Amino acid sequence: MKSPAEIASRLARQWQQAQLREERLLNVSAWPLRMPIGKPSARGFEQDTAAVHEHVLAWRKVPVGEVFWEPVSYRAGAEPIRIPTYWILRTPSEWVEAVSDTGMRGEFRRLEHIIENVDEAFRRVLVRQRGLWRDKPDQDVIAAARLAARLSPGCAGGRPLRLMAEFGVDTKFFERHGGLLTRFLDERFDGLASERGLVVFLGALEEKEHWLLVAPLDDGILPFRRLRVTSEELTAVELPADRILVVENERCLHLLPRLPNTVAILGAGRDLSWMGAEWLAAKRIAYWGDLDSWGLVMLAEARRYQPDLTPLMMDRAIFDRYEKERAVVEVSIAGDQAPAGLTDAETAFYLYLIARDRGRLEQEYLPDTEVLRSLSVWTG
Fold it and tell me: Of 150, 160, 217, 247, which one has the fewest beta carbons inside 10 Å?
């Protein structure tokens, strides 16, 4: 037989379990809870009647929920005794009151207030991951949830996060609550905010230093095989090559062949403002990115700085050639409409990709023979 304190201790431990917490706070069908108390054994009743009497008295004093009693006959007793057999709790608030712990009670009240004021899409993560909000004021958590409900991929449009004043938050809000915002956006967009990083996901300008990989593809151009430089440095320092190949992802370095008088710049992502450098005006520039909606968004952004660039391996013919074996699902598209800056054919390709079940072909999965052929055509 279990005392009220023993079952309350068990209920307190259950509060620490994320899955149980989610089931009981967000699922009406989880209620009522019916917790067995257990009956005194015949031997226990006979050898320690006083303990049984104290057990019964303790359960009579329980003020929360409903205690279910049954008459039980013992050979050592003159008549049946009413014994508590189940403790029934019908609501989450009764669960909290049954434990009677100030910490648990405070967390529950905070969660209750926060959940009432946020979108349903964020309730599960708030209940399961208490570390997201326990050290933050309630009003900031609610504000972050409301902001995340309004944000969308690429909505910053190339601005720094601190300049997104139309969303009604101060300039430091993104800095203070970036982790919370990222987690909320992950709930809406299947983890894409974490995968890409909040700044890239929102299409914002990265204000901290961004390092790119510079790799000469011919001998004698630079005194090194590869070097990391910041985008700020690339804006100011001219690279001594006639051709500049801009590649979205660093992982493609192993695919690049030797090319005459060419330097590759890899890992730019959406940090493309350096492409507005004056020294690039005298170069032949090519851009190569993923064949998906985000890749085409970045192509459009690159073209804003260099209108005469040559896109490589970013067309429907390439996609159709390798789709069957290499295309995957694009978890979250960049938008329902193609970005400005694409050609008519690229716009049609964008709409074609977002309409497909598997509309993403990552550039590093193209065969090296295809890469060699396309780059050879570009260099002549």
Answer: 150
